[in-house]
Amino acid sequence: MVKASVTLQISTLPDSPGVYQYYDKDGKLLYVGKAKNLKKRVSSYFTKKFDSNRTRVLVKKIETIKHIVVKTETDALLLENNLIKNYQPRYNIMLKDDKSYPWICIKNERFPRVFPTRRLIKDGSEYYGPYTSMKTVHTLLDLIKGLYPLRTCNYDLAEEKIKAEKYKVCLEFHLGNCAGPCEGLYSEKEYHENIEAIRNIVKGNFKDSLQKFKSQMKQLAADLKFEQAQRVKEKIDILENYQSKSTVVNPKINNVDVFTIISDDSYAYVNFLQLSHGAIIRSHTLEIKKKLDESDEELLQLAIIELRQRFNSLSNEIYVPFEVEVGEDIKVHVPKLGDKKAILDLSERNAKYFRMEKFKQAKIVDPDRHEKRIMAQMKKDLRLSEEPRHIECFDNSNIQGTNPVAACVVFKNGKPSKKDYRKFNIKTVEGPDDFASMEEVVYRRYKRLLAEEQPLPQLIIIDGGKGQLSSALKSLDKLELRGKIAIVGIAKRLEELFYPNDPVPLYLDKKSETLKIIQQLRNEAHRFGITFHRSKRSKQALNTQLETIPGIGEKTVVELLKHFKSTKRIASANFDELSKVVGSSRANKLIAHFNSSN
């Protein structure tokens, strides 16, 4: 039987690629695994029957499940490899060896060599990768060698040795694979231009190389050097047909700590990623309960000190989303672009997922706590005097003034209460007048609630700007409800919230839960109103076309629609088909009507 605490953790796992980690009751890491879908993969451990006794014992020992979310399954594979090699979990047996993934090295030399390697040496060389298969590396190197002549020898091509004619060109030069830098036949400048193009290719950026080769091809063709132009064209074809795009990790990122923070009114969540040689070796998210109105800067500074002490981090460089004061010995970097920014984004994504899981678990364990938090947040964000436990939202729907209708949807404790939804036919307004229509339905709605002594909402939301809001206020004034119910209007274009007698709109954070609930209310009111409007328009169109035929009444129309299903089929039916349903007299009238219409 699965433990209740483990079931709760599984229920809130994301459906994203990543790495999961199993811990026992003492906090000891048992197993590290990768997954394309974390929730499905982890769930399978507790639903399948395993033949292996080893796996059954592992599952029984699991008390805590942690995970790190990444972008792709390939990233998950690489991260799994790093974590297993770093922590050597007892139940991982496949990846404990010293074998590591392959990289492409651009050697730190005067004429750099480009070759595959599994060892990272700190000699100033550049390493691109890691790649999940050596086949990918060889394919990429074959592509590079087909485009650019590079040396493969390991000679020390110092300038004085070349001038002393110490070396002679080898077979690779005669085969056209090398341009002969050992004899000074290939300039250092041109060689490094090719190396820069190779850097772009291994990063997946072929644009510059393609443009360069296309310019060369056009020039050679203009000079009537068609054979050389054809060879360049073949290189262009190779580049355009190559589909793989490499993932670049900068191994120079060494001993770096990454911190990001996500917060709300009650809690802050700080994610910590520890990197070594461009690889993540630890991820941990710290939940901090706010005691006062602390800023994100203050909380992040405290969390950095706490997490570095807890995990004994000795790195002298940290990446953070904004400047913080953590001592003179630590270099603080705020990445804006590139690989460093991507790592910062990954940390923030994990903080967000951790926060969402906490909310989901709270919903399951203590639903009231989640509702209270949402209501308290909405009260603060919307500057209300009480929590909006009961919210009603109004929307008008018409097409050029025809079949005008309105809808009122109701949310209670942040959730739709569909039994309380109401739809309205506009009775007192002629033509397309949204303002007058809004005034009518708001008046009718609350006049009835007052008459029936039903509870009033704490908040009314009007789908529209200042005009619709002013119209709704007229109705509240007539009913003497102004000031007793909070009311706001939401404009669709910029999601602006308008308040009575306030010319300056309120803009909520696009990611805030308050705005999401208001948008859900607005969208639900729009959907409900449009559905009612379409239904009314369709019925009117049918009734108008059939009931205007002399001698055809409502009962006849119902019989015809039951049998033929649509007006189009009735119009195309012959006399015999119609007379079987409504008799010969009415059949003649129908045929005469549709013939005259055609």
From TrEMBL:
<dbReference type="InterPro" id="IPR036876">
    <property type="entry name" value="UVR_dom_sf"/>
</dbReference>
<keyword id="KW-0267">Excision nuclease</keyword>
<feature type="domain" description="GIY-YIG">
    <location>
        <begin position="15"/>
        <end position="93"/>
    </location>
</feature>
<dbReference type="InterPro" id="IPR001162">
    <property type="entry name" value="UvrC_RNase_H_dom"/>
</dbReference>
<keyword id="KW-0742">SOS response</keyword>
<dbReference type="InterPro" id="IPR047296">
    <property type="entry name" value="GIY-YIG_UvrC_Cho"/>
</dbReference>
<keyword id="KW-0963">Cytoplasm</keyword>
<dbReference type="InterPro" id="IPR001943">
    <property type="entry name" value="UVR_dom"/>
</dbReference>
<dbReference type="InterPro" id="IPR004791">
    <property type="entry name" value="UvrC"/>
</dbReference>
<dbReference type="InterPro" id="IPR038476">
    <property type="entry name" value="UvrC_RNase_H_dom_sf"/>
</dbReference>
<dbReference type="InterPro" id="IPR000305">
    <property type="entry name" value="GIY-YIG_endonuc"/>
</dbReference>
<keyword id="KW-0227">DNA damage</keyword>
<keyword id="KW-0234">DNA repair</keyword>
<comment type="function">
    <text>The UvrABC repair system catalyzes the recognition and processing of DNA lesions. UvrC both incises the 5' and 3' sides of the lesion. The N-terminal half is responsible for the 3' incision and the C-terminal half is responsible for the 5' incision.</text>
</comment>
<dbReference type="Pfam" id="PF08459">
    <property type="entry name" value="UvrC_RNaseH_dom"/>
</dbReference>
<protein>
    <recommendedName>
        <fullName>UvrABC system protein C</fullName>
    </recommendedName>
</protein>
<dbReference type="Pfam" id="PF01541">
    <property type="entry name" value="GIY-YIG"/>
</dbReference>
<dbReference type="InterPro" id="IPR010994">
    <property type="entry name" value="RuvA_2-like"/>
</dbReference>
<keyword id="KW-0228">DNA excision</keyword>
<dbReference type="Pfam" id="PF14520">
    <property type="entry name" value="HHH_5"/>
</dbReference>
<comment type="similarity">
    <text>Belongs to the UvrC family.</text>
</comment>
<feature type="domain" description="UvrC family homology region profile">
    <location>
        <begin position="262"/>
        <end position="476"/>
    </location>
</feature>
<feature type="domain" description="UVR">
    <location>
        <begin position="207"/>
        <end position="242"/>
    </location>
</feature>
<dbReference type="InterPro" id="IPR050066">
    <property type="entry name" value="UvrABC_protein_C"/>
</dbReference>
<dbReference type="Pfam" id="PF22920">
    <property type="entry name" value="UvrC_RNaseH"/>
</dbReference>
<comment type="subunit">
    <text>Interacts with UvrB in an incision complex.</text>
</comment>
<dbReference type="InterPro" id="IPR035901">
    <property type="entry name" value="GIY-YIG_endonuc_sf"/>
</dbReference>
